[in-house]
Amino acid sequence: MSKFLKVMVVLTAIAAMAAPAFAAEFAFHGDMNNRFNLYTNHSEFYSGAGTQALEAKTVKNPVGDKNTNTTWGDIKYRFWTEAKTNNGMVKGVYAIELGAMRFGRTGTGKSLGAGYSGDGLNIETRWAYTQFQLPSSDSKALVTIGLQPFKINSFLWAETAAGVKYTTDNFELAWMRGKELFNSSNGDSKESGDNFSARVNLKPADGVKLGLFGLYQHQNANGTSTNIASRYEVKNLGDVDMNLYSFGVDGGLTSGNIFVKWDGIYQTGSFNNTTFLGLNGNGTFGDYDLSAYLLHADIGMKMGASRLTFTSWYASGDNNDNDKDLDAFMATDVDRFDSIVLFEGGYTDDNYGTERPYLLNKGLFLNKLAYDRQQTKKLKFGGAILYMQTAEDITYSTYSSKDLGTEFDAYVSYKLYPNVEVALNGGYLVSGDAMDAFEVNQDGNADENIYRVTSRVRYKF
To answer: Given a cut of 70, is residue 190 above it in pLDDT?
Structure first.
């Protein structure tokens, strides 16, 4: 048994013995995900410097002209303890994570320490928060304080964040601090990266859900920063002066065997005293204005044990890296799993092309047709075909293109026990010419198709 698991077991045992003293209820949960990259023809796209290849300018050309086949295994374990008192009206949660430790990868720190003898001192705090029901309210009125799961919208922001959130049955208010900054001239912490959100959840009719939300993000670094557009996401912008507003609507409709889901987000705002660089390194220092949007819809039908879903979204992109008008939709911190090859759809999902619903600052137009079948209580399988383009041309060298290509995905999942899953999936991307921008040898035509096969054994309790 590893050291951190021993510590958690001991702490849980101590808490259990102490429970009668203060009438607390304790629960211990785990998610033990054992993952394998069984095969890929371009390991440089998913490992080492190539990880997040479509987001980092420093590795914009990771795809070589020869196959680089490899296999690796990793583990990603999360354990958390919940303590409840006052008939469940007060809850404390603490979670630790051992994340994406590759077999044989030595060193000390996050994702390291799986070499000989192990133990790379690599445990991180994932959640740490207190939640309580307001005693003066007869209905749901929860206050959550600390490092907590936070979601506004899956295309805009859905990740762990630190702050304070107030939640009722149909309303939510939150203040999250993404980055602490102090103005060098007066030490004012109000210049930090603060995020204020509000959300209303409605059910206007049977089978209909509707959400309305707004997010205001402010930061005043009182300085300068160089920002690379291929890391085009709020959490990676650095010490910029920023005022960003996002307004959105989402929801869904279910009628018999037909279901529809939708998202629409509009963004406006400004980024001052900074430089956005395009893929070719172009960009000028100054003040930038943003006007961008994202539209998404799922339309599906259930047919007994089968389900057919068509997914489409359009995230606006920037068509000119040399001006100061930004037209590209910008997420804050999200994880998208829609593609096995380009997104986090592979089970080794800490190694991917992009986690965002767009590429670089060029947006995305995605169309996907997926089939899923729950054959038995234990067996599930499915497949999908995707066609993807950027919203605006990726321009590199003397070439430009929007075409990312056509992808074919498939998966199968089997439950050994109700809480133990064995799964296998794979994706094959017939690369469009826009993928040539990420190849070592650029000639205006994509020369390398990319595929990978991944698997996992996952135990959750």
So the answer is: no
Amino acid identity, position 180: E
Sign of CA dihedral 376, 380, 386, 388: positive
Those residues with Cβ within 8 angstroms of residue 395's Cβ, 6 or more apart along the chain or in another chain:
278, 279, 280, 321
More confident residue, 269 or 238: 269
Angle at 338 between CA 333 and CA 340, to 5 degrees: 110
Q: How far apart are CA 133 and CA 140, in angstroms?
A: 7
CB 300 within 8 A of CB 203: no
pLDDT reading at 45 higher than 60: yes
Write out pLDDT tens, residues 327-380: 999 999 999 999 999 999 999 999 999 999 999 899 999 999 999 999 999 999
